[in-house]
Automatic annotation (TrEMBL):
Record-linked InterPro entries: LysR-type_TF (IPR050389), LysR_HTH_N (IPR000847), LysR_subst-bd (IPR005119), WH-like_DNA-bd_sf (IPR036388), WH_DNA-bd_sf (IPR036390), YidZ_PBP2 (IPR037402)
Keywords from the named record: DNA-binding, Transcription, Transcription regulation
Entry GO MF terms: DNA binding; DNA-binding transcription factor activity
PROSITE patterns: HTH_LYSR (PS50931)
HTH lysR-type domain sequence ranges: 7-64
Similarity comment: family membership: Belongs to the LysR transcriptional regulatory family.
Keyword DNA-binding: yes
Keyword Signal on entry: no
UniProt source species: Halovulum dunhuangense
Protein name: LysR family transcriptional regulator
Pfam families found in the cross-reference section: HTH_1, LysR_substrate
């Protein structure tokens, strides 16, 4: 096998030019080098490929059988490389056939994903979105995920290479209207003492509430942990379990609107939702387009 680290791929461009022009002078004109530079490159290729490749004729040069065999593969390979590079500079949503992979915090998935589906249907009908849970290990996440819409604890930016704030929202404590503590002031101690239903870490991607409680010497009782937000409003409405949610859900989910809501008594906790991506893909046109679409969906809903 040829070690590509020791192989100058520019030599293949010169080889193709000699094949297409049939002369050293013509190839030199095509690639913008002097005839002597092209001759020198050909000499290197002959050594590396162990073949004469071209022999002189009265009209220029003629390829050997080995050169003819190589030509089809070299043309194909250079074509693939050229196409790959060209795609880095263009992305046409209406024509693209591509799968993007995302992680989306469960609190906003019900808001984001239906609107994203509408945008894809109208703008990029052959583009697909694959949603992965946040249980994917952080060590490998950016090898598998194009971007995240994640919960970020506090007011700080997330510790990832690139991010854009989509919204920051107050967190409220939810309980049924007839809950025994519905009329009591919500304190950190009362909040920790009550029984909770919560989203799993794989759905939210954060343990900030438990971390903040632990710093205060408090621990809440997890009566139930569920995989997605959809189950929580009905569980809270039909039991004495409490839950937390961004205040915005009070207007987005009719089931939540019927519950009693009190501010979360942990002032240091603010749930921010951030769009996050890897620096290595920041300039890739397809990902730039999708990040723009996600940002516009939040902006169109009146978010900062």
């Amino acid at each position: 096998m040829v070690n590509l680290r020791n192989f100058d791929l520019n030599l293949l461009v010169i080889f193709r030019a000699i094949m297409s022009r049939g002369s050293i002078a013509g190839a030199a004109e095509e690639v913008g080098l002097s005839p002597s530079a092209v001759s020198h490159a050909l000499a290197r290729l002959r050594v590396m490929l162990n073949d004469e490749l071209f022999f002189r004729t009265a009209d220029g040069v003629c390829p050997t059988d080995r050169a003819r065999e190589l030509n089809a593969d070299i043309e194909s390979g250079l074509g693939f490389i050229s196409t790959a590079i060209s795609r880095q500079h263009q992305f046409v949503p209406a024509e693209a056939e591509r799968v993007f992979t995302m992680q989306v915090a469960d609190y906003v998935s019900g808001f984001l994903l239906p609107r994203l589906a509408q945008r894809l249907q109208s703008e990029a009908p052959r583009v697909s979105i694959d949603i992965l849970p946040f249980s994917v290990s952080s060590e490998s996440v950016w090898d598998r995920v194009d971007m995240q819409v994640r919960l970020t604890p506090g007011r700080l930016k997330p510790e990832v290479v690139r991010s854009r704030r989509l919204l920051a929202d107050e967190i409220v404590v939810l309980m049924r209207p007839g809950h025994p503590c519905a009329n009591e002031p919500m304190t950190a101690e009362l909040y920790a003492a009550l029984s909770h239903v919560k989203l799993s870490q794989s759905a939210t991607g954060t343990t900030v509430i438990d971390d903040v409680l632990a710093a205060r010497g408090l621990k809440r009782h997890m009566a139930m942990t569920v995989a997605n937000w959809f189950e929580i409003p009905d569980i809270v409405a039909n039991s004495d379990l409490i839950a937390i949610a961004p205040r915005r859900l009070l207007s987005l989910d009719a089931r939540v609107a019927g519950l009693t809501a009190a501010p979360l008594p942990l002032e240091e906790v603010v749930f921010s939702f951030d769009l996050c991506w890897d620096l290595r893909t920041e300039r890739e046109p397809g990902q730039k387009w999708l990040r723009k679409v996600v940002s516009e969906i939040f902006q169109e809903a009146g978010e900062p």
